[in-house]
Amino acid sequence: MMTAYETAGQRAARYTLWTFAVLVLVFLMAPILVIVPLSFSAGSFLHFPLPGLSLRWYEDFFTSDLWLPALKNSLIVGSGATLIATTLGTLAAFGFWRARFPLRRLLFAVLLSPLVVPVVIVAVGVYFAFARVGLTDGYLGLMLAHAALGCPFVLVTVLSTLSGFDRNLLNAAASLGAPPWLTFRKVAAPILFPGIFSGALFAFATSFDEVVVALLLTGPGQRTLPRQMFAGINDNISLTITAAGTLLVLLACLLLVVAEALRRRAERLRGRSG
Questions:
Q1: What is the pLDDT at residue 133?
Q2: What structural domains and CATH numbers belong to the chain?
Q3: In the predicted model, what is the mean pLDDT of residues 149-156?
């Protein structure tokens, strides 16, 4: 932030930091800025400048016998994985917040391990574990695997929300005779909702965008959208892939906007309670 007492060195450092941040942002956004215009190309090849503008690739996406089922599969798996991850992550966060027990930090690190372990290692381990119980080539196995990848996001966001939660509210409800489940539903859940919903958004985005686990656990009937994009790149490069990629970018932007709105709402609620 610029102040009236800013020295020349501080001003130069601020400008340098902003320049560096802008360059990093351009570097990260460059692939997206290339893909989005190509999805509106009237041509049939990855070529700049565009020969013309057309919506033919979006039409091909929404009328295809390959892309629409893949989108449907991604929505089914993402919704199921989000429900599982949100339920387990919220309960785990509440347990870590309420209880103090031996090896608490070790267990917390284990639950967060899917964030740091390479996805290919998780995919191979899940494949060998699920193959023994017949959970490959089906929705359930992929939902459980994606839930394991999304659960740490829910755990972290809900724990962050719980850091400002007043324990006396639960004690007051219990003193009035409310059972634990009713206390959680009526007292804790409304206050924790921004954190729970933000974690659910991240869990859904993780599942919807995941391809490595899907390559090992799904058959032809459960092919998700990222896997279909991967197969399309290997088999035949079509600009329909750019349309699908653009839709994924729009979905990610929408999820970020919703998450930011929830964050601001949580800050307002904390301000009122404070």
A1: 84
A2: 70-273 (1.10.3720.10)
A3: 91
